[in-house]
Write a structure and sequence with these properties.
21% strand, alpha/beta
């Protein structure tokens, strides 16, 4: 039978936000792969997984998660990670890959799956959805993501502040991911668009170091890389005004 590679979304950090299906997939897999940085330190995905599976079942695989300038180095790291996971698939019928958030939303799993499909023909790739940071931040802050006919735009600020500015100029709610290193540019974009009021940002959601604050408090100080911003749609039509 073909081996299975299952991408499991384990949420933004709070172990209570892993779905029942996600927990079952982690426990049913022969091994659980977790991505780590070059230094090999325990990441957020591993910390979450260890609430549900024993440490001896977890395998760390190094990904160049923070490499954005040297494409050759980044792809070499992906290839090495793919070879390691291919070795695991050769010896096990089910390998789970734990990723923070959702495996189909800005996840390292997508690159790994592409590598495995090309290098290990016949491997069955599956995903188990996870709760995203924007959903968790909305719940913890009380921010409403969408109403009625409003669109929802999700942008990674690593693509540049201009992408965020374009989104803020449009209708609907804007969510920004990975903006911690560009907090000053994000604050400027919010002020220039007139959308700072009601916007909120958060980091380390569900963890002891959690921080949730109004976006109007943003300044030039750098924030954690995995910070999330919600700038709700302008709503001035009363209850149900966007239906």
């Amino acid at each position: 039978m073909s081996s299975r590679l299952i991408g499991v979304g384990v949420g933004p950090g709070d172990p209570e936000l892993v779905t029942v299906k996600g927990v079952n997939a982690l426990r049913a897999a022969d091994v659980v792969v977790v991505p780590v940085m070059d230094s090999g330190e325990r990441g957020r995905a591993e910390a979450t997984v260890l609430h549900y599976v024993p440490a001896e079942k977890v395998v760390r695989v190094v990904f160049a998660l923070n490499e954005r300038t040297d494409r050759a180095r980044r792809e070499a790291a992906w290839d090495a990670a793919g070879r390691r996971v291919a070795e695991l698939l050769a010896g096990h019928s089910a390998v789970a890959f734990a990723t923070i958030g959702d495996p189909n939303v800005y996840s390292t799993f997508t690159y790994l799956a592409q590598t495995i499909v090309a290098s290990v023909p016949g491997t069955v790739v599956e995903t188990v959805p996870g709760i995203t940071a924007m959903q968790d931040l909305a719940a913890r802050s009380g921010a409403v993501l969408t109403e009625g006919t409003e669109p929802l735009t999700l942008v990674p600020v690593t693509a540049g502040a201009a992408v965020l500015k374009d989104a803020l100029a449009g209708p609907g709610t804007v969510v920004a991911y990975k903006f911690g290193r560009q907090a000053r540019e994000v604050a400027e974009a919010l002020r220039e668009s007139g959308r700072a009021d009601g916007a909120v940002w958060g980091s380390a959601l569900g963890l002891p170091e959690e921080s949730i604050r109004p976006a109007a408090d943003l300044d030039d100080a750098p924030l954690p890389y995995l910070s999330t911003l919600i700038a709700p749609a302008r709503r001035d039509g009363g209850r149900g005004g966007k239906l």
